Amino acid sequence: MAVHNLSMFIGPTSTTCPPPDVTFQVKTKEGTVKEVKAHKLILAFASDVFNREFYGSLTSEDIIEIKDSTQEVFQLFMEFIYNKQPDWKDYDLRTLASLYYLGEKYNVKVL
Q: Which residue numbers in the chain have pLDDT < 70?
């Protein structure tokens, strides 16, 4: 399997193996809490911040609450990490600014 096909077989919303091993709890615009699932190893490859969080000297959590993002923006961030190619013209400036903030926070330089 080529690396560029990875997003077809594994992703934050994929039900294929291997199963996700980390869950982020994020509020929606309406105020309800939704879950965004991911794989620690893939996030660690994309971000040295995630790498330290999951594989550093401290024990990592399997459920992480995200307080500084909406579920919609955090889901978009995860999809970007999993190599989904969004059409940036479909998003407003506030969403893109929030996405940029997450890129800076988690040190995802290509975002």
A: 1-17
